[in-house]
Amino acid sequence: MEELVAEAWSFSKSFDKTASGSAYLESQSHKILATVNGPKEYYELSSSEEYVRHSQATLQIESAHSQFIKSAFGSTILVDRYPKAVIEIKIQIIEGKESTALPLMINAATLSLLDAGIEMRDTLIACSAARNGEKIVINQEGSPQVIVGYLVNTDEIVMLQETGGIDQERLAELLRASIDSCKTFFNYLQNNFN
């Protein structure tokens, strides 16, 4: 029987009173800060073409993994509810390796978006699962590795990243472990957010 090893984590919210929402997430290996500002209205819409182009919010994400984070949240945040607006998400790695921070950065961003009251179609939680010998480790280094961005209520994967050349059997195993960890993460969040 394989052993599953998960990394413990904790969070706090609303620490930055100048932001619309904020979160601090800490694990054994990382410390992550995330803030949300907005939605803030665009003021430079000079033509009707620009007005139509900005009929939904624009996400501006500052982070080491902004491409992946923007893609995951672009399908999650209800941007059409915020016409002509900008939603800024800033995520900073205070401590820990950038190469293993992506799932925790997404979770910190989710917490700060919830704190800001930004409408989302579901709660996005991210986890990674990796092989470390005969163990499956969650949100830790290992190879091969799968990172999953998961919408917990709709049971939908909105982001998937894999490294290390994974065969189909191992991929299914790591996906199950990631999704199970996302659900556990979400239950912890539900019980401790308010």
UniProtKB/TrEMBL annotation:
InterPro entries: ExoRNase_PH_dom1, ExoRNase_PH_dom2_sf, PNPase/RNase_PH_dom_sf, Ribosomal_Su5_D2-typ_SF, RNase_PH. Pfam families: RNase_PH. One of its GO terms (cellular component) is cytoplasmic exosome (RNase complex). Residues 15-119 form the Exoribonuclease phosphorolytic domain. One of its GO terms (molecular function) is RNA binding. This is Exoribonuclease phosphorolytic domain-containing protein. Belongs to the RNase PH family. It comes from Blepharisma stoltei. One of its GO terms (biological process) is nuclear mRNA surveillance.
